[in-house]
Structures are given as structure tokens and as C-alpha cells.
Fold this sequence. Notes:
alpha/beta; Rossmann fold; six-stranded mixed sheet; four-stranded antiparallel sheet; 14 helices; 18% strand; binds adenosine-5'-triphosphate; binds magnesium ion
Amino acid sequence: MSGSEAAGAPGGEQRRDGQGGAAEQAADAAGRHDRIDHPPENREEASLLQEHREEALEHAGPAERVTDPSRYLLVADSVTAGYVPEVNILDGCTLTLGEGEVVGIIGPNGAGKSTLIKTIFGLLPVRGGTITLRGESIVRRSAHELVSSGVGYVPQTQNVFPSLTVEENLEMGVFLRPKIFQRRMSAVAELFPLLGERRKQKAGALSGGERQMVAMGRALMMEPSVLLLDEPTAGLSPIFQDEVFHRVREINATGVSVIMVEQNARRCLQVCDRGYVLDQGRNAYTGTGRELLDDPNVIELYLGTLAQTG
Length: 310
Ligand SMILES: Nc1ncnc2c1ncn2[C@@H]1O[C@H](COP(=O)(O)OP(=O)(O)OP(=O)(O)O)[C@@H](O)[C@H]1O
Ligand SMILES: [Mg+2]
């Protein structure tokens, strides 16, 4: 059983839709594979964009200096981590989450967004830097322990058990505290009425958007104070994407602080309180959602508008 499975996150089917198309092939050929709002039109543009991003990264200062981690709910400070020995994917990443905040992480494919979330959730060892929850180090805590400490995680893919019913999926979310199942099932069904209505249905028979609700519902079963969401809208139709963003705000309104990785960069920045642009495992830009949406460099390099027209 992998760490995420052990923590109640399932293995199952891959959900994300492939997008294909000439623009993606061109971006692929240039070694990048952007799916944030507007992929570059052609190979030349993709490599030019890449060059500009690298130049901007060279000049990027530290994201923020955290002098007192206990002032935040969660802090990842100057974190280095990776999968293969001596290859660091995260190269000194910093992220803070205040009590009650929704924080978004955007950035190109391969930037290390999922890696950062997985490292926070204890699925990858921290090679450098610190991660704290309410000021206390969680660096060597397992995913299990983090779930018990109030951290919920919804992976980017394979986030429901397709052969189990909705109810059984939710039950997996509280396997550490089965006694709270009924109480939490009622609370989660209030937030996601569909999960109550479909409780006896196999999760594999649900639509992508409905399955995403199951995955979020499962993570909420343990009554987390922090929810880590990795691309919750990936592969969903625009209507379901909106629904998910709306649900994230509703979940937040119940007192859950959220870190959300998103491919829908603009929409994410509209919804979140603060955002982080990651690139090549480093902090490229940080600010409120509005600041990032209005920043000409972020627009040009990561939101695609100028890359499309210029
Ligand atoms: N299990 C793994 N083993 C080795 N390398 C990995 C593994 N998972 C990811 N990587 C590498 O780490 C880098 C960052 O990957 P990560 O999944 O964090 O990117 P991301 O920003 O989430 O991208 P995406 O937008 O495509 O989801 C990539 O170069 C990827 O190839
Ligand atoms: Mg990812």
C-alpha cells in the first residue's frame, strides 16, 4: 500500500482528459507541455516563452521570509525535495497558509506543483527546509499521522476507489476513526447532497465531476483543518469546473483552509485569497489573487494572454 493509499487515498483510474491538438504538440516538441489557460501557439513561441520565464526566474527574489512559523496554519519554508537521489525537483520552495485562507498554486506542467503538495503531505522526504503545522515541524510525519493531525489530501489522479460505492469511499476516509462515520457522513452529505443521494452507487459509475465530489468528500470525512487539493477541476467540463470552485469556497466557509493546485490559472486566482506561481521547483511570483491577475509579467509568462497575441 502506498502512502496515499494508506492515508485513505485510493488507487483507481486515471481521469484527466488528453487534449491533443497542434498547440500541445508544438509545446511538447519544445520540451514543455503547458495546460495553463492558453498553451503557446507554436514551437518558436513556446521556447521564447520558456526563455523569458527562465530570465524572470533568475531575477525572482525569495517568495517571502517567514520569521515566525507559528503565526501561520501551515508553512513550507525553502523546501528541497525530489524523487531520484541528487535530483531536486523542489529547489527551495516557500509557501504559507494562514488560518481561513484559500491559497492557489499555478505554474507550467512539470513545475513541481504536485511534488510540493505531496511533500507537504509526507509522501516525499524533505531534503532541505522546513514544513510546519501550527508552528510545529511535520517534516518526518507520515501521511497517516498528518491525516490525524487534520490535514486532508485529494491527489491529482486516482482519487476514488471506482469499485467501491460512494458510501464505502467515504468510509475509507475515516478508517482511522470509524466511530465518527455517521456524524461526518451527514455533514459531508449536507455539503454535497449528491453524495447522500448516490451513496449506494459505485464511484466508478459516476461522472468525472461527481467523482471529484466523492474525492473531496472523502478527504473531508476526517474533519480536516487543512485541505490539499491537486487539480480538482482537471478533465471536467466548464460547468463542473465552476461547481468545484464554488464548492471549494463553500468548504472554506465551513472553516477549512485550502491549498489548491490548479491548471485553470485565471479562475483559480479569481477564487483564491493568495496565489503562488511555481516554475522549475522555485517560486516565480507570489501575491494576492488579484495582484497576480493584474501583474503584466504573470500575464505574459503564465496566463498566456500576451503569449497568444504578442
Ligand atoms: N514519481 C516520480 N518519479 C520521478 N520523477 C517524477 C515523479 N513524479 C514527478 N516527477 C518529476 O517531477 C517534476 C515535477 O512534477 P510534478 O508532478 O510535481 O509537476 P506539476 O507541476 O504537478 O505538473 P502538472 O501540471 O503536469 O501536474 C517533473 O519533471 C516530473 O517528471
Ligand atoms: Mg501536477
